[in-house]
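The records we work with from here on pair a chain with its fold. Each token is a code from a learned vocabulary of local backbone shapes. A record is reproduced here so that you can trace the correspondence yourselves:

_____
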Amino acid sequence: MSYTLDIQELQQDEKIPYDLLQIADPSKTNIDRYIFDSTIYTASIKGRMIGCYVLYPMNEGDIEIKNIVVEETHQGRGIGTLLLHDVIAKSKLGGLKKLIIGTGNSSVGQLYLYQKAGFRITHIIPNFFSDNYEQPIFENGIECRDMIVLTKHL
């Protein structure tokens, strides 16, 4: 399938794509804790938004990818990889030193993707998902309890 992926920064007057963000993070309350201090980039094909990522400034030179998501009907086509490479390219151009991303212990595909892109596991936050989400989250038949934090030095 041939397509052109258009990645653009979401403007302040544009609606936050909660429907997409909640695919990766089911809690709107948790999303609202970081979204207003973040930069959102959307990915569209033929004018239809099919993915996005959210960058949250940590400190001088470091940024956290708070959310990176592709609509379910477009997953498995390499779009997540393209989004991740876009984050890395933009971060290098912006003179950033380090990218940080957290994912669940049950997020097997994401752990593969991030490590393949050069991220290294730096630490684990035990019970992060158990403590911060009202309902248990299950992926790949595994309960998502702990956050695995990965870092990429640029």
